[in-house]
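Re-run with default settings, no changes from the original entry. Doing this only to confirm the output is reproducible before filing.
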Amino acid sequence: MKKFTKAAVMFLTMALCLGMFATMALAGTLTMSGSTTVQPVAELLKGPFNMANPDVEVVIAGGGSGVGINDVAAGSVNIGNCSRNLKDTDPAGLVAYTIGYDAVVVVVNPLNPVQDLTKDQVTGIFTGAITNWSEVGGYDAPIFVNRRADSSGTMDFFKEKFIPEGQAIVDTAKIHDSNGLMLDAVATDANAVGFLSMGYLNMAVKGINIDGAVPALDNAKSGAYPYVRPLNMVTNGEATDLAKAFIDYAQSPEGQAIVSSQWIDL
């Protein structure tokens, strides 16, 4: 009986060691696509994840939240990155894992003297009710509206918060497929207005205060700036294998330290 017990203990010990080794020895290719808001978060997480798992190739593409949702549902990628909550109209069987939060900021060119708008004024500008910057305290100049594509999670969130039901963003708005393209458009046009992930905010554009709320990371974290939405990694069914390992890392204390450097941690 003692021999059997010792053998059983040895067997269990070896099994546990092999299981731990298998967990550490990840290998293969992990693919993800979707939100250009989640994309830079994933890129920052990729470096240290690869250092711990050198045999894993992580391939990250953009395209917008809608692209990520469709790709993961079709099995084209392991993870669909999405900067919004899942909708009833999304394909069935998807599971969203929140890895952090991000704020959406209305932006203008730094040469524009306008710094403060009310929420109603933002709505008026983007729906075409307000067409000249002089109507909101700026120069006598036309307002050139920029928006994201319909597949964008940032677009979904912006419409939810600023565009009332039954209204629409003005038809003349220039459409952009990414945060980066939106940033470039506003940075190079003194009369432009648009909206961005706070993670993209830099000196090339100016964030607008809305009803006195200043678009700063600390304010978004504290709730003083209210226009905050989730950053999700979506899988088709429960996350497994490499997708689970990456998401687990993103949600770990180490991963959250990276997220909190430019976004809002869990």
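The two ends are 51 Å apart (CA to CA). DSSP finds nine helices and eleven strands in the chain.
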